[in-house]
Design goal:
Order of helices and strands: HEEEEEHEE
Structural class: alpha+beta
Number of strands: 7
Oligomer: single chain
Shape: globular
Length: 106
């Protein structure tokens, strides 16, 4: 999905570690960092990424400010600005979390 690629490029261009909770179409969820710009391919990540999967398998991504007392992503505002530039992204923003999903085209 080209939309996810655009989102990942926007996030990778921020040049900071962004930890996210990924929700997949098979029902699994896991915490995983946004890969680097050089690891983003057309419809998946490069083979050196720990969890190889296709963008079409992603349902949504949550980018939390904190996990318990540990701050994961300090500048959610900058992250939100980068994501909002991708027109097809459905984004919900709060002080504690950013949720990103893509509208499914029929």
């Amino acid at each position: 999905m080209q939309e996810w690629k655009q989102i990942f490029i926007s996030l990778a261009e921020l040049d900071r570690s962004i930890c996210a909770e990924w929700h997949m179409d098979n029902g699994t969820s896991f915490f995983f960092g946004i890969p680097k710009l050089t690891q983003i391919q057309e419809d998946s990540f490069s083979n050196d990424v720990e969890f190889p999967f296709r963008f079409a398998e992603i349902v949504s991504i949550d980018i939390p400010h904190k996990f318990g007392k540990v701050v994961l992503n300090e500048r959610l505002g900058e992250v939100a600005e980068a994501i909002l530039q991708v027109n097809s992204a459905q984004v919900t923003i709060s002080e504690q979390n950013i949720n990103i999903s893509i509208a499914v085209r029929k």
